[in-house]
Write a structure and sequence with these properties.
The structure is a homodimer. The first copy, chain A, is built from 10 helices and 10 strands. With about 290 residues, chain A is an alpha/beta fold. Chain A has 2 domains: about 170 residues, HUPs (Rossmann fold); about 100 residues, Pantoate-beta-alanine ligase, C-terminal domain (Pantoate--beta-alanine Ligase, Chain: A,domain 2). The first copy, chain A, has a 6-stranded parallel beta sheet, with helices on both faces. In chain A, helix 6 crosses helix 7 and helix 9 runs antiparallel to helix 10. The radius of gyration of chain A is 19 Å and the shape is globular. The N and C termini of chain A lie far apart (about 45 Å). The interface between A and B is medium-sized, with 30 and 30 residues.
Chain lengths: ~290, ~290
């Protein structure tokens, strides 16, 4: 595995790869979720490139840029273990040079969910992903469905800007008890870690209520999800929304979920961590820990 | 020469080209200025791709989108005559599909010159160029210096978004009397065509004044340029500015031009046409018709 820090070097190493290339952009502190993305990339392509870059432009004022967990040595080992060929960890001032003044904005999809509470976040994401796409020029790029809105925005950007790249979304990987894996879980102490289960509990409760009776209104489903979350001491709901799975527009609260289905998504602050999770109500509960939640 | 209308077909034809590829994006109604860009492309690369697409998103309300001159048959012949291999004229609804919602914004460089009078214009330009870059994937892209601000913005976008493309700027091509070539010149009747010379007259007057005495203030140089333009009946100045050649920030009017030099640029409406022109005061007057202006 080559460990590369400059853009020129990356382009040269990329040019030497024969066959198809999968790309997994990350902010590092890799966990089993990331490794699943990487393995999926290697199922689809001959080679794998992973980037680790804590992108400052997607953090807002007061967010956790300075404290974002880092473990470059561990990340290198994990990438090597799954068969990654190029590990790219560029310097911040190489990525954003003087007078960097170009921004990629994806309208429409950023109006719900994390959009309003993290202004500028998705511009930062779309811009760094466009940059990395042009640097790495992969055939496939793999993203996790935990960041459902990010995935939707990157799909739209890729289509709109005519990147010749297939965007692959991978289902959420969860801890044994059902908590969605996230680098930010490490912010939690033991008690907060137990409380953090309220996200999956709320989403699963709504899923069961919907499956039990699909004629329930969106408002009723949201109330069902809200109860277990609000029952967790120290959990503060940033948002809990039921949106159209493609447009991400909030569904009419007074009606049942339509034939297009529904994505229920939430962001909850627990102590120092802002955690997100989501679940498609119109699809079977995925195999794994969510099925055995009490 | 292949004449191609769909993006998929373009990608296939592009993949079959061995060697380097130059790209000249245009809005059609090609003139000798465009042909110079194409020849420059073929000096630098093995193959040439030309696109003709009247991009709706770079026209503002009340601008000349619907009347923009078109001559697809003539364009095809001209491209063939210079050795273009792929002529790409996509349909508008193939370029902008439903719910197109991605925009590329280049900040800083759009604050002067055409920026304030054409809100949204450069976003439209940057977005379509980013799209075409991803569709054509050229090694070199060639643009004219008549659209100096556009060229600067595309250079910045190319650098910021890490497109692996060399941006080549080509000096302004002029009619025998000095008028900068433009597809919009065809809007002019005979009398307006004569008046249109005021742009070059004004810029050359400022150039002579600067060369004669570089200690003149920017304000004095602007006044010198303004006089011949205002003397033309029916000419309305949209802007006349003296800016830094790289940052495009207006220079201090009370001081002489600094060592960084100065670009003087103007937009003038004459009848139905909004014409633009520019000249670098700190460089020798280019060979050609400007030298013999009275």
């Amino acid at each position: 595995m080559k460990r590369i820090t400059t853009i020129d070097e990356l382009r040269r190493a990329r040019a030497e790869l024969n066959g198809t290339v999968a790309f997994v952009p990350t902010m590092g502190f890799l966990h089993a979720g990331h490794l699943t993305l990487m393995r999926r990339g290697l199922e689809l392509c001959d080679h794998l490139v992973v980037s680790v870059f804590v992108n400052p432009t997607q953090f807002g004022p007061g967010e956790d840029l300075d404290n974002y967990p880092r473990d470059l040595k561990g990340d290198v080992e994990k990438c090597r273990s799954v068969g990654c060929e190029i590990f790219f960890c560029p310097r911040r001032d190489h990525v954003y040079t003087d007078h960097h003044s170009t921004t990629v904005i994806v309208d429409e999809l950023d109006r719900s969910l994390c959009g309003p509470s993290r202004p500028g976040h998705f511009e930062g994401v779309a811009t760094i992903v466009a940059k990395l796409f042009n640097i790495v020029t992969p055939d496939v790029a793999v993203f996790g469905q935990k960041d459902y809105q990010q995935l939707a925005i990157i799909r739209r950007m890729t289509r709109d800007l005519n990147f010749d790249i297939r965007i692959e979304g991978v289902p959420i990987i969860r801890e044994d008890d059902g908590l969605a894996m996230s680098s930010r879980n490490r912010y939690l102490d033991d008690d907060q870690r137990r409380q953090a289960l309220c996200l999956s509990r709320g989403l699963v409760a709504a899923h069961r209520a919907y499956t039990d009776d699909p004629s329930r209104t969106v408002r009723a489903l949201l109330e069902t999800a809200r109860r277990p979350i609000e029952a967790a001491p120290g959990a503060h709901i940033d948002y809990l929304e039921c949106v159209h799975p493609q447009t991400l527009m909030p569904l009419d609260a007074d009606r049942p979920v339509s034939d297009d289905g529904a994505l229920m998504a939430t962001a909850v602050s627990i102590g120092p961590a802002r955690l997100i999770d989501n679940l498609r109500l119109h699809e079977p509960l995925p195999d794994g820990p969510l099925r055995s939640l009490p």
